[in-house]
Amino acid sequence: MKDLEGKVVLVTGAARGMGRLHAENFHREGCVLVITDVDEKGLGEAEHMLRSLGCQVHAYKLDVSDRDACFEVADKARSEVGPIDVLVNNAGITECYAVLDLSERAVRRMAEVNYMGYVWMMQAVVPEMVKRGSGHVVNICSVAGKIGTAKMGGYCATKFADIGITDAIRMETWGSGVDFTIVNPGYVSTGMFEGGKVPFITRWQDPMKVSRAMVEAVKKNKAEICVPRANVLMVALLRGLCMPKLLDFAFHTLGVDKSMDGWCRAGDRPF
């Protein structure tokens, strides 16, 4: 089990939701925090909250879709805080509309933030980890990266990509001392999927439970976790058997294909 005491942890998308909880839970392990977000106001609130808990925290505004900005923030964090021991790629957005109704901006923005942002941050942080022979990267993926779901097509595509590139870089850095963890939550009640309705076969997941499971996965150096485990593994297995029509039938029968019919963007989100 890894000892996280004193480790420098960088969390993207930390202004709200699971990102803020990730920062809070790493603080409980005695870590030094670097938090980033495009939402400057929310980032300031998160920084204030963490400082009130006695956390040593450094906040930087960052749009992870900007590759140059990712490198600049990573360099600044290393200079002002120290080498980054753990990178948590958490920043993400969604537009829950039918594929044929997605705007060009929505498709591009989801890809730029959810996928390319992960790539840029890994390129900015991982080489230095490899040089010193230690480090850990957590990529927050999703059950949506295991199986496509109606009205979540654009989001699902980015999460499929996140899982794929994590598998690739893990093999590319084999033996380097850098470890990777894929985190696949189910429906998490953070407001990101406001108005959605979970099918009766599952339930909304407590974001704190997911975040704590993620920290434990880092400590135990797990390559991949699913929360809830049974549900995520079941759909991944069925899709892996190359039986998409069976899944279509099951999802239609269970109402999974209607789960995002009522989705609406939370009004306080600046993106």
Write the layout of secondary structure elements.
Blueprint: E1 8-11, H1 17-28, E2 32-37, H2 40-52, E3 57-61, H3 67-80, E4 86-89, H4 104-132, E5 135-140, H5 153-172, E6 178-185, H6 207-219, E7 224-227, H7 229-240, H8 244-254
Parallel strand pairs: 1-2, 1-4, 2-3, 4-5, 5-6, 6-7
Helix pairs in contact: 1-6, 3-4, 4-5
Overview in brief:
The chain has 271 residues and is of the alpha/beta class. The chain is built from eight helices and seven strands. The chain has a seven-stranded parallel beta sheet, with helices on both faces.
The proportion of residues forming helix, as a percent range, comes to: 40-55%
Give the N-terminus to C-terminus distance in angstroms: 38 Å
Number of helices: 8
Rg from alpha-carbon coordinates: 18 Å
Shape: globular
> Element order, helices and strands?
EHEHEHEHEHEHEHH
**Domain unit count:** 1
Structural class: alpha/beta
Major β-sheet, in short? Answer: 7 strands, parallel
Mean pLDDT: 90
| CATH H level, superfamily name | NAD(P)-binding Rossmann-like Domain
CATH topology tier name: Rossmann fold
What is the CATH architecture assignment? 3-Layer(aba) Sandwich
- Residue runs with pLDDT of under 50 for 5 or more positions: none
- The CATH class is Alpha Beta
The overall strand count is 7
Strand order of the largest sheet: 3-2-1-4-5-6-7
Strand content: 5-15%
